[in-house]
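ok posting inputs for the 2-acetamido-2-deoxy-beta-D-glucopyranose job
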Amino acid sequence: MPPTTLLLSLLLSSTIAAAAPPPLRPEFYSETCPEAESIVRDVLRRAMARETRSAASVMRLQFHDCLVNGCDGSLLLDDTATMVGEKSALSNVDSLRSYEVIDEAKEAVERACPGVVSCADVVIMAARDAVLLSGGPNWEVKLGRKDSLSASQEASNDIMPSPRANATYLTNLFSKFNLTIKDLVALSGSHSIGKARCFSIVFRLYNQSGSGRPDPTIEPRYREKLNKLCPLGGDEEVTGDLDATPERFDNQYYKDLVNGRGFLNSDQTLFTSPETREYVMMFSKNQTKFFRAFVEGMVKLGDLQSGLPGEIRRNCRVVNSRWPEVLLETGR
Ligand code: HEM
Ligand SMILES: *[C@@H]1O[C@H](CO)[C@@H](O)[C@H](O)[C@H]1NC(C)=O
Ligand SMILES: *[C@@H]1O[C@H](CO)[C@@H](O)[C@H](O)[C@H]1NC(C)=O
Ligand SMILES: *[C@@H]1O[C@H](CO)[C@@H](O)[C@H](O)[C@H]1NC(C)=O
Ligand SMILES: *[C@@H]1O[C@H](CO)[C@@H](O)[C@H](O)[C@H]1NC(C)=O
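and the output
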């Protein structure tokens, strides 16, 4: 290659590199905060010792953060006088929990390496640890995300799926994020741990699709159990288990779906619908296949990026420009 052409191609490639966000990579903090991952894992271990369910609640945060403008910690911003954030969005309000576990992990990481590790990355590490510490697979996470400068309740309302959603709707939604049918079914296996409210299922127990009748795909004895848990007109904040082993990350969720014992409509529809059923069957028979597909799905979910400018937040709930105390303390 003549020298001028070489120079030109170097210039061009550096221009392109500056325009696209820098690629995420596993060793991102290996020089600047090598202890970050072990610190976050210790915090998760302590949180789960206090409350086992916090693993499920933390893992769910990755889904709700990453689907809305990419994995940018936008989910974690508290509302301000001028910004209504994602925490108060339809799928999140009175539902998402364990934000304080992320705060604790971020504070611990800040003590070790101030101003280095983003809240968005803490969520990704914590979600992985939650799965691993619940008996699920381990995987290497890519890091180097920036935290958003704003959040949008509206964006979350537009994107996050309802528990009423059917397989066709979910397949289309996931395809917009380059997530395949296999990814959809595998990622839904996150409902192998955790709980949901009666609020999320009363419609299917008493008035599925406005029919005035229950969802006929619910196995009768399971329906009786759900009717007792969530009587018509009862307290919709009461919670039930998402599968038969809600503290263990395993493939029980898929076995339950095959038996008509899915908790949410969005779960059971994956077995009812022909386009997703084959993966439910596959994962119900082979946990190794589920674990591999789940890891692949979580990595793809973690790759979603907004491309918008960002920062390393000092406190996950507030953008740095609104955090003058910290700015004064650190003299930055
Ligand atoms: C496929 C579309 C999905 C729908 C429609 C959906 C919907 C829901 C709903 C309605 C709840 C219960 C909320 C409540 O009653 O307060 C829930 C809980 C949960 N979701 Fe999903 N979800 C989906 C996918 C995912 C994905 C991809 C993940 C993670 C990768 C995830 C992780 C969880 C976890 C762990 C819980 C239990 C949380 C806890 O116990 O605090 N979900 N989901
Ligand atoms: C699935 O849901 C969509 C939108 O909510 C609806 O238009 C469609 O008719 C449903 N499909 C089936 C097979 O029920
Ligand atoms: C999906 O993949 C296409 C082609 O690789 C890419 O142009 C697009 O930005 C991707 N979409 C998302 C949401 O990542
Ligand atoms: C069932 O839902 C339909 C449509 O959403 C509504 O018109 C009807 O009143 C509901 N029936 C009952 C018993 O709640
Ligand atoms: C489960 O799937 C894995 C990976 O594809 C395979 O190696 C293994 O033999 C399968 N196990 C059974 C019992 O079929």
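notes: The CA atoms of residues 62 and 123 lie 6 Å apart. The domain at 167-301 is CATH 1.10.420.10 (Peroxidase; domain 2).
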